[in-house]
Amino acid sequence: EVQLVESGGGLIQPGGSLRLSCAASGFFVGISSISWVRQAPGKGLEWVSVLHSGGGTDYADSVRGRYTISRDTSENTVHLQMNNLRAEDTALYYCVRDWGPGGEERFDYWGQGTLVTVSS
Amino acid sequence: QVVVTQEPSLTVSPGETVTLTCGSSSGAVTSGRWPYWLQQKPGQAPRTLIYDTSNKHSWTPARFSGSLLGGKAALTLSGAQPEDEADYYCLLFFDGVRVLGGGTKLTVL
């Protein structure tokens, strides 16, 4: 069974750092692309970053230079390192299987999210 | 960065048909932007209904369909049901970057 479980959220002061994790089961992150999508309280969804199956990365303008996405294939986990956090980064962060080698593996499985609160 | 535009809100009567659209500040939306449509209900994670313009996942109800219409991506709901009341988001691809629209709040009333 395919599953994604996020962890690592919490309360952090402005300027601080946090690392989110997305643990995958039922498929291998090394041959899939994983995206992070966030949702500020009461707001819409915002795409944040993707780690492509080939290892390349892309970021939204709002986080480029502050966030870094990576993966640990031995743990079958994708990480999102978030530095220099701002109040506007407060959100529920979801990871999602963005692409897989199967024909229908397109944004098909989502985690339940981990909450990040940036506040002093 | 590119802005993806959607109707902020729409209302449809049960059993009727409604079309949600998705535009791009960079020009016409084509199949090369691989339009996706996501549904989100209150308190739930999103789920993807449509990918690559018109392809459905196994869980997508048959009453939902995706297409291109007048330079935009479109999601058509034929025969709205009360359980279709939700927020709907369009997702477009710009090379490696994905961009989400602001969402459409669909009311079934």
Protein model, in words:
The complex is a heterodimer of chains A (120) and B (109). Chain A has strands spanning 3-7, 10-12, 18-25, 33-39, 45-51, 57-59, 67-72, 77-82, 91-99, 114-118. Chain A has 120 residues and is mostly beta strands. The termini of chain A are far apart. The mean pLDDT of chain B is 97. Classes of the chains: A mainly beta (120), B mainly beta (109). Chain A binds chain B through residues 35, 37, 44-47, 50, 52, 56, 58-61, 94, 96, 98, 104, 106-108, 110-113, and chain B through 1, 36, 38, 40, 45-48, 51-52, 55, 57-58, 87, 89, 91, 95-103.
Specify the biggest β-sheet of chain B. 7 strands, mixed
Number of helices of chain A: 0
Helix content of chain A: under 10%
Helix content of chain B: under 10%
Query: Which quaternary structure do these chains form?
Result: heterodimer
Radius of gyration of chain B: 13 Å
SSE order of chain B = EEEEEEEEEEE
Mean pLDDT of chain B: 97
SS-derived structural category of chain B: mainly beta
> Rounded to an integer, what's the Rg of chain A over CA atoms?
14 Å
Please state roughly what percent of the residues of chain B sit in beta strands, choosing from under 5%, 5-15%, 15-25%, 25-35%, 35-45% or over 45%.
over 45%
What distance separates the N and C termini of chain B? 36 Å
Portion in strands of chain A: over 45%
> Total number of β-strand segments of chain B?
11
Uncertain spans of chain A, ≥5 residues at pLDDT below 50? none
- General shape of chain A: globular
How would you write the strand order of the largest sheet of chain A?
Answer: 2-10-9-4-5-6
General form of chain B: globular
Continuous helix count of chain B: 0
Q: Which properties best describe this structure?
A:
heterodimer, A: about 120 residues, mainly beta, six-stranded mixed β-sheet, four-stranded antiparallel β-sheet, B: mainly beta, seven-stranded mixed β-sheet, 11 strands, globular
